[in-house]
Amino acid sequence: MVLSKTASQSDVSVHSTFASRYVRDALPRFKMPENSIPKEAAFQIINDELMLDGNPRLNLASFVTTWMEPECDKLIMDSINKNYVDMDEYPVTTELQNRCVNMIAHLFNAPLGDGEAAVGVGTVGSSEAIMLAGLAFKRKWQNKRKAEGKPYDKPNIVTGANVQVCWEKFARYFEVELKEVKLREDYYVMDPVKAVEMVDENTICVAAILGSTLNGEFEDVKLLNDLLTEKNKETGWDTPIHVDAASGGFIAPFLYPELEWDFRLPLVKSINVSGHKYGLVYAGIGWVIWRSKEDLPEELIFHINYLGADQPTFTLNFSKGSSQVIAQYYQLIRLGYEGYRNVMENCHGNAMVLKEGLEKTGRFNIVSKDHGVPLVAFSLKDNKRHDEFEISDMLRRFGWIVPAYTMPADAQHITVLRVVIREDFSRTLAERLVIDIEKVLHELDTLPAKINAKLAIAEEAESQTGSVKKTDIETQREVMAYWKKYVSERKSNKNKIC
Amino acid sequence: MVLSKTASQSDVSVHSTFASRYVRDALPRFKMPENSIPKEAAFQIINDELMLDGNPRLNLASFVTTWMEPECDKLIMDSINKNYVDMDEYPVTTELQNRCVNMIAHLFNAPLGDGEAAVGVGTVGSSEAIMLAGLAFKRKWQNKRKAEGKPYDKPNIVTGANVQVCWEKFARYFEVELKEVKLREGYYVMDPVKAVEMVDENTICVAAILGSTLNGEFEDVKLLNDLLTEKNKETGWDTPIHVDAASGGFIAPFLYPELEWDFRLPLVKSINVSGHKYGLVYAGIGWVIWRSKEDLPEELIFHINYLGADQPTFTLNFSKGSSQVIAQYYQLIRLGYEGYRNVMENCHGNAMVLKEGLEKTGRFNIVSKDHGVPLVAFSLKDNKRHDEFEISDMLRRFGWIVPAYTMPADAQHITVLRVVIREDFSRTLAERLVIDIEKVLHELDTLPAKINAKLAIAEEAESQIGTVKKTDIETQREVMAYWKKYVSERKSNKNKIC
């Protein structure tokens, strides 16, 4: 007798995932499924769908670290189940955070006495760091105004229009007015002169950026400090400075140590930096450091007792993973000054290789400076037939993710492509990117212009419906209308730079 | 000729870490080291120091998940370098978040039409979720008051004194007054009657907790809804409800599906839940769901364009890891209703085993209810000689981390020990914990009372200096003073419950 089982009688766990029914069932999207499925199937299904995400290491849009050493990956995985906020239970992890805060405070030349503990905290990113710093400024300013018997209901903050979106979030969520210094063509960062002019009695701080998201440029914090010091002498308002060093904070001390931008300038009261950008840690860690205890109002701090000692905390998030804090400490002691300097010099060198390769094509203007965050922002010399957005789209076919952006007000007519050079972007990749960009240019040269194509289709449609042929002026107006609509669509869609 | 190398001439990479000089050098604590060290040494040094942290799985203080399947660990590690906020670059990860939001919204009976997208977002934890929900209530209330021409500068929120610290943070950072309903002995959650009494025209919402941190109890949201509906009819204030279901949100639908606490109640406008508690994901993921679009003011939402479609975002954090979102989706489809139900039933069963074991000792009162979050909160029937804090300290020697807390106002004289039963706390561990608690009790019984010991030392000291012997009354006063100081130290140190 032949013994045969029907498919439904076989032990389900025998089937390899792709032989099982789990890859035939529609994956739930809106509601939880009723039944469980085997863990192998769950893993495979999710893993496979995620193949369609971009490759993080080819994501040249992002400043955020995409590679770490395997030893660090192991530390990360070993601590993935540690809830950072349980300070009582994980005292070593808590101490590692404190060590990082102290190391970074010293990196930024905080005026600390020997053995004096720095004032700062680890956050989930620069967004949280900026909100905490902004909150501290707002509360300090309110207390000062209350003591003076003056109104304190209309706080504002002065920044450049090139600020990252988290400043707009801070302003909107914490009810602070955002006064932006507009940019202009060829000047894509905050002008310190204009910024100081905009400062009034309701200004809680002026925020300067070390490493603008748009073109990597460092704002002149020293000039801002000097001009604001003068104004403070006249007005007596004592307006402070915050430096958003999200990108630049881990670059300037190693590549440009003589550049004065940090606590060496007296008006700088707090600084934030992203551990997950050039701090060389995966996404999920930022740092904010205050100059001294006086710059962080006590009423914002919550005190938790651990091991009989007071652990003050000032964060928006509570429970979160410990892995990134441990990874940051790993990088700080593994690399040291020497290692970070080497990494930043390599990034800078490879940025120059890319920049020179692009210049050699003769088709691009380089918008970024050599001095600043290692990135290359470039725009087409002639973008009438094809523009930067098309280049960005076509590069995707090769696997590269290179974003195109329009500048904020008042330089919205400028569009740039931006490549961020991270630690793991080698010279080989830089050269390959140049070759692929050349291929894209070549292909675009053979294609008709998008606007001409639209017009041709329109004319085609008209001749088919037999309408009267338009005069030259009408045709010209139509071309202008198409062009304006096309450009404004692009502008409104693509203006949010991350 | 014998060729010998001195130690310093050997190639450093030859030495095993523990043979190298790196384990003799003092580890940097305040400043970054000048030089790099090998990655193996960095790994080993950090790994070894972290051995002195508590074992996360024996950390019975925390609700936050400490174990996941290896398949999920793999998904986590594979996506550790994906920055979640790059929606353009990682469209699948973004869609997984959206699917989770929809699944959780349906789990909470959000009134959605067929194919209608839910309104919600993934956060880093319930803290961020609560801040976002609170912000939405505050803004909605402000807009309403402005439209009515009434003052909007004194918003308040009504909660129980048993709220988790993140509500206090929200109140302090977003300038909302916190009106707390005091507890009383034997009633450790918010009393809906008292809460509704405290509601006034400046109340932006009433926050109920499903799964109080102190004793796991579910607050009666239905009663609150009914009472508040009546009051709203009288006053016309339209005060809404927010449910902080940080713990309970992933328990109630599976263990108590008939319990009405979610969007089935008309006044409930938003709910937060921690994915990293009974959502069974590692620390770093929470969810907030709004009833409908109307409950989330448009002006708080930032619009980012990706893939030509609008992706609205409303978060405090920007860059963060993608791993926890993917892990949450894994759990939702891997387990389904069936799996979550099984896990919660197991947790409940093991909580009962622990509770019965403790009751059998005859030394404890059980403060937690059977119905609610699977945890066991218990206090000593007689804590005059030794108290719960001493039991907590002595359990540490066995490796268990069992915290002791005093209740908030007005029940500060009650101290409890609390054991949280998570997914990975098996019956074997429950039985072992009971045995170890019995050992601790036995040992404490043999030790003199701490207060008597202090008094004895004091008397000893006095007799040595030869002061006049105190009268009985003076001695009694001294004892009382010692006792009050001891208790108040404990209270102030240990009152922050996480």
UniProtKB/TrEMBL annotation, chain A:
<comment type="similarity">
    <text>Belongs to the group II decarboxylase family.</text>
</comment>
<protein>
    <recommendedName>
        <fullName>Glutamate decarboxylase</fullName>
        <ecNumber>4.1.1.15</ecNumber>
    </recommendedName>
</protein>
<dbReference type="InterPro" id="IPR010107">
    <property type="entry name" value="Glutamate_decarboxylase"/>
</dbReference>
<dbReference type="InterPro" id="IPR002129">
    <property type="entry name" value="PyrdxlP-dep_de-COase"/>
</dbReference>
<keyword id="KW-0663">Pyridoxal phosphate</keyword>
<dbReference type="InterPro" id="IPR015421">
    <property type="entry name" value="PyrdxlP-dep_Trfase_major"/>
</dbReference>
<keyword id="KW-0112">Calmodulin-binding</keyword>
<keyword id="KW-0210">Decarboxylase</keyword>
<keyword id="KW-0456">Lyase</keyword>
<dbReference type="Pfam" id="PF00282">
    <property type="entry name" value="Pyridoxal_deC"/>
</dbReference>
<dbReference type="InterPro" id="IPR015424">
    <property type="entry name" value="PyrdxlP-dep_Trfase"/>
</dbReference>
Automatic annotation (TrEMBL), chain B:
<dbReference type="InterPro" id="IPR015424">
    <property type="entry name" value="PyrdxlP-dep_Trfase"/>
</dbReference>
<dbReference type="Pfam" id="PF00282">
    <property type="entry name" value="Pyridoxal_deC"/>
</dbReference>
<protein>
    <recommendedName>
        <fullName>Glutamate decarboxylase</fullName>
        <ecNumber>4.1.1.15</ecNumber>
    </recommendedName>
</protein>
<dbReference type="InterPro" id="IPR002129">
    <property type="entry name" value="PyrdxlP-dep_de-COase"/>
</dbReference>
<keyword id="KW-0663">Pyridoxal phosphate</keyword>
<comment type="similarity">
    <text>Belongs to the group II decarboxylase family.</text>
</comment>
<keyword id="KW-0456">Lyase</keyword>
<keyword id="KW-0210">Decarboxylase</keyword>
<dbReference type="InterPro" id="IPR010107">
    <property type="entry name" value="Glutamate_decarboxylase"/>
</dbReference>
<keyword id="KW-0112">Calmodulin-binding</keyword>
<dbReference type="InterPro" id="IPR015421">
    <property type="entry name" value="PyrdxlP-dep_Trfase_major"/>
</dbReference>
